Amino acid sequence: MSLKFYLCAIVSSCVVTAFAADIDASKLPPPSTKTGVTYDNDIKPILQKSCFNCHSSKSPKPKGKLKLDSLETALKGGDNGKDIIPGDSAKSPLVAQVSHVGDPDDFMPPKKAEAKNPPLTKEQIGLIRAWIDQGAK
């Protein structure tokens, strides 16, 4: 493996670790109790309504280079590394951002975009948490 690969892995790991340390998981909506949650059946319809305007392959310049319109691109992450940590929703930046927990500059959708992109409900966030906790498949 190349030095560039190792450096990217270290930086991504540090970003996620630093992010997780800043989030109070007790402020996140609880995960849904629904089992068998999948991206295509449960999560994509939620993201389509609130996130695709800015975070899809159809956007001329997806914000933060984060594309959420396919499982593969969602798991890849964006400029800040991985936003979804399969198996650990409490450490997934996406969950904190849509829950409006942590740094207000990172909240999704941003206040100025809420008229066009409605914020997610606690139930929707809970379903996203369950999906991530179940392995983000």
Q: Using only CA atoms, what is the Rg?
A: 14 Å
Please state roughly what percent of the residues sit in beta strands, choosing from under 5%, 5-15%, 15-25%, 25-35%, 35-45% or over 45%.
Answer: under 5%
Chain-averaged pLDDT: 87
How many discrete domains? 1
Count of helical regions: 5
Helical fraction equals 40-55%
SSE pattern:
HHHHH
Poorly predicted tracts of residues: 1-18
Please describe the biggest sheet, giving its number of strands, its sense, and whether it closes into a barrel.
none
Structural class: mainly alpha
Q: State the separation between the terminal residues, measured CA to CA.
A: 27 Å
What does this structure look like?
With 137 residues, the protein is mainly α. The chain has one domain (3-133). It contains five helices and no strands. The chain starts with a helix and ends with a helix.
Question: What are the main properties of this structure?
Answer:
single chain; mainly alpha; 137 residues
